[in-house]
Write the structure tokens for this entry.
Amino acid sequence: MLRLLTETFFRVAAGAIVAVLSLSLVTPALAVSATAAPLLAFSARIAGDDARTRLIIDFDRKPDFKVHYVANPYRVLIDLPETAFGLKAEELEARGIFSDIRYGTMAAGRSRIVLTASRPVGVVLAEVQEEQGAASYRLVIDTAIVTDQAFQALMEKQSWQEAAAPASAEQTPVMLPGSRADGPFVIAVDAGHGGIDNGARGGVTKTEEKHVTLAFARQLTEALNALPGTRAILTRDKDEFLSLSQRVQLARNEGANLLISIHADTLKQKDIRGATVYTISDKASDSLAASLAERENLSDQIAGISFVDEPAEVADILLDLTRRETQAFSINLAQSIVSNFKDQVLLINNPHRHAGFRVLTAPDVPSILLELGFMSNKDDEKLLVDPAWQKKVAGLVAKAVEQYRSTVVANGG
């Protein structure tokens, strides 16, 4: 049911970013008659944030195009037939994912748009839409951040030569692994904090939360990848800052069936200890959950990123149904983890709680936030930095995920 709702939502929702990446987006040959007038790009606009960005360009005729990728720096190249760019400078001013945008003539009969980004990025949707009864055509390019591995795959799979005209034969798009019915069960493991955002700090060892979460995330990824038919990926595999929206987008790009965000917070009450599992809710279950969510949601502000609410989706009803289904699955996973932790890992009182964590907001990916314990408690801190304890807990979480997956499959999810 969740897969059906999600697929329907992404077909209908205007402006939604699809959850799988095409390694090659191709339209017919770019060859243009020497006597044909150049295309005219007469209007453009760009919008987005640091996780995904949409580029729209209006043409007087239907444009043929090809998309390529280049590294060092990360760039997306959009090749076009000869094009006259009648655009105002501010219409394609770099924003969102992109730090620089250039366009112009590339060679005889060829033009190019170059989108430069500071981190790996992929085109997840590229299409031409007919406007006003074929009086004009709109090129829509949706982009999203991807992992280093995904960008490398894009680079390796494409076949083109910088100096040569693009090949005329169409290529069949190749999809990355994701939550397809015939693919593995994908789990995104999100190590909280990172880079400039250190998170909590231990009172005894002075260890920063960002290092604890990454160490545990690696242990958990290893334990999950040992399960049959399972593929676990890290949203970050090094000490780098990721905004909350970037974490969610990376999980969706991989077609994640689950997102597990790892944290180890601190409290003023140093006697409180134990693990907690959180699921999303508009209303917090208690003051502790509300306070924790408020602190975690400030991560972006630490790096100087302001949060802007996204506009409502067109497919509001489908989106709401998807969220409800997703929330039910998230609760199922949370309960499975709590059950496996009993008598094995110390739990806080009322260990399953809920609040408005922004990292859990993907409408189509069941998500939980796992607080392993509190860095402010010396007993918890001792365990949190212990690799043997991390491995034990990671194994218990993996067991819970396996049980959750069996339940979902049994119920037709």
About this structure: The chain has a mean pLDDT of 81. The longest helix spans residues 316-341. Residues 185-410 form a domain with the Aminopeptidase fold (CATH 3.40.630.40).
